[in-house]
Amino acid sequence: MPVPEECVQGEMTQVFSKGTKKKEKKMPKRIPYSYFRSSCSWRVRITLALKSIDYETVPVNLIKAGGQQFSKEFQALNPMEQVPALKTDGTTIGQSLAIIKYLEETRPTLQLLPQDPKKRVLVRMISDLIAGGIQPLQNLSILKQVVGQENQLAWAQKAINSGFSALEQILQSTAGKYCVGDEVSMADLCLVPQMANAERYKVDFTPYPTISRINKVLLVLEAFQVSHPCGQPDTPTELRA
Amino acid sequence: MSESGKPILYSYFRSSCSWRVRIALALKSIDYETVPINLIKDGGQQFSKEFQALNPMKQLAIIEYLEETRPTPRLLPQDPKKRVLVRMISDLIAGGIQPLQNLSILKQVGQENQLAWAQKAINSGFSALEQILQSTAGKYCVGDEVSMADLCLVPQVANAERYKVDLTPYPTISRINKALLALEAFQVSHPCRQPDTPPELRA
């Protein structure tokens, strides 16, 4: 199914594909390079929404034409050849948690990290567990190297179950309404997209009641809804909400 | 905390993640006690129920906590634009390279594939890193001050050497690694000098 090349709302957007660059209107300050389905991209979109930061997404399709992230143009922007990347303040930065922390420091409204260092380390720990310990082990580029579709599913499930077992245990002592206490934090931004991945790989959630409960509560919040993969400029028609 | 009030570090001499934290503790002159956790013996002591109950604090979260509670010397620049570069490089290594070539993943890949798998993960990350460092590096990864990025770099280069990665394509990484290894904090924390370093690997 061809991915729509323009933002569905009809606004002109810089399209990230070779030879079809269009003249853009005045570019906004912040440009996230994002794939609708990428959990790392979703984390950054949630952050931008929570902090009410204006942005315009440039979609990067990770599958089409061998993966637009490998194009020379994108590689020049982000040598890591990954999404998300964020163009902001005259520079382009990669790595979702680095981006989120940068936004946290330069746009402190609606804090995503608690003031108290002891609570802050818990938020970081949970974020690192997901962003460093689960997601990289089940992302597209790793799964491509695992031969055979059933093996890929088993591999992804193993990575997620392994991480979720640890996370469920940690949340027993850290969670209130959300991952750490009762305020939405960077940990929550990591949790929801990872749960979406888990659903996609048919992970059984029965062993993870705390993760499930928190995920459900977060999905009700507007920032998590407007940034959801089912409503992005590059969401294919059949997956749109 | 130990009985003496010192922090306790659960560490494996060879683990690059443990080494990062040891460097941070050394740079900040924080006294600590090591409790060695052998990642291989008995199927891996990290899987014991006791260890799971105590831990796992992850990676860079520990270093950032140390940075906030013992701010000197700084491991993160004051300027947000430099700070994001330090974090980006740290995350590239800690999230993008290391997890893809750690023990538990390599076990799943099968012995005959392990070397190739590890080399691929490291080469992939190092290519990106070498390019990034062209614009960020001074004496060290970001400018001329040692930062969290440098703490991540050195242990990862050690892993690269262990997996026989050819470092010729990465002159900036190699130069910075060499400069850092001359510093005391990187030497005292080195895997070859830990309480649990086997005799045959001791410096």
Features:
phenylalanine catabolism (chain B); 9 helices; globular; 46% helix; Glutathione-S-Trfase_C_sf (chain B); 4-stranded mixed β-sheet; transferase (chain B); mainly alpha; homodimer
Shape category of chain A: globular
- Structural class per helix/strand content of chain A? mainly alpha
Tally of extended strands of chain A? 4
How would you spell out the order of helices and strands of chain A? EHEHEEHHHHHHH
Which stretches of chain A of 5+ consecutive residues score pLDDT under 50? 1-24
> Which chains have the largest interface?
A-B, 35 and 36 residues
Name the helicity range of chain A: 40-55%
Query: What is the gyration radius of chain A calculated from CA atoms?
Result: 18 Å
Short description:
The structure is a homodimer. The first copy, chain A, has 9 helices and 4 strands; from the N terminus they run βαβαββααααααα.
